Amino acid sequence: MREKIVAGNWKMNLTKNEGLLLIDSVVNGLNTADVKVILAPPFPFISDTVSKVEKTTISVAAQNCHQTESGAFTGEVSAVSLQSFGCDYCIVGHSERRQYFGEDDKLINEKIVQLLAKNIKPIYCCGESLEQRQSEEHFEVVGEQIQSAFSGLKREDLLKIVVAYEPVWAIGTGETATPKQAQEMHAFIREKLSQVLRDEAENVSILYGGSVKPDNAKELFSQKDIDGGLIGGASLNATDFLAIIHSF
Ligand code: PEP
User: Fold this and answer.
1) What separation in Å is there between the alpha carbon of 35 and the centre of ligand 1?
2) pTM (two decimals)
3) Which of 11, 130, 163, 208 to probe ligand 1 with, by most ligand atoms within 8 A of CB?
């Protein structure tokens, strides 16, 4: 049975007090243990978040990591450091990293390898741009992203990865993929994974991300291959984030 997961990606938002208050509100308002909740705050919050969720079922993710173990990379953060601070997950390949920091799937593959070596589960983001969707290249694009990012990974590695399908045109735009569009792509991703994993592809959680809100979460999450969401904007508001989690 695959896990239902709702992860909140704060991106580069919130001051110390705002962030700590948000964590407390999520911890205090959470009333289900059936959904794995993951908080992905900016780096300075990682340590406090880990302490605050210690006695809960909530896990902590970083939003990025460097592809090497250590060294002269000013401003970067390594997987080994994240592990030592208690991070269980790390987002890789978010479209904002691809778009603004030039990350491609070859680099993302190196980050995935580094994370797996440190026992951190990657949350791998993929998804097509608006132009690619309009020219009906979306399956090809996502297929190639996955092929390249997961290249060389063993079966047991693949089973540790959470995939997040995030159509770029739906991130932070208020525009959401329809449940049918999302389900179609999730089924395609699972089929792609089954080329290596066979039946075990059923055990991989595939999240949808892109303007998930309390009023569209239920329908999206009720699709057969949608196992939860990666939530940006709505995760900054505890009431909305909790409503999304509880909509399962
Ligand atoms: C995201 O940041 O991954 C995301 C999906 O953002 P939003 O929910 O704001 O579209």
Assistant:
1) 19
2) 0.97
3) 11
Q: CA 165, CA 124: separation in Å to the nearest integer?
A: 8
- Whether residue 175 is predicted with pLDDT greater than 90 in this model: the reply is no
Closest alpha carbon to 19 in 248, 243, 239, 235: 235
Ligand 1 centroid, distance to 127 Cα (angstroms): 12
* pLDDT tens digit sequence for 18-67: 999 999 999 999 999 999 999 999 999 999 999 999 999 999 999 999 99
CA distances, 101 to each of 97, 136, 203 (Å):
5, 26, 32
The answer, yes or no, to whether residue 174 has pLDDT greater than 90, is: no
Q: Which residue has the tokens 């709702």?
A: 6
User: What is the best residue among 96, 126, 163, 171 to mutate for testing ligand 1's pocket, by most ligand atoms within 8 Å of CB?
Assistant: 171
Catalytic residues: 94, 166
* 148-160 pLDDT, tens digit each: 999 999 999 999 9
CA distance 38 to 108: 21
Q: Which residues contact 242 (CB under 8 A, 6 or more apart)?
A: 25, 26, 29, 30
Task: For residue 166, give the ligand 1 atom closest to its CA.
Answer: 5
Which stretch of DSSP H or E encloses residue 89? strand 89-92
Rounded to whole angstroms, the Cα distance separating 108 from 98 reads 9
Q: How many CA atoms lie within 13 A of 232 on its CB side?
A: 21
8 lines ligand 1 (CB under 6 A): no
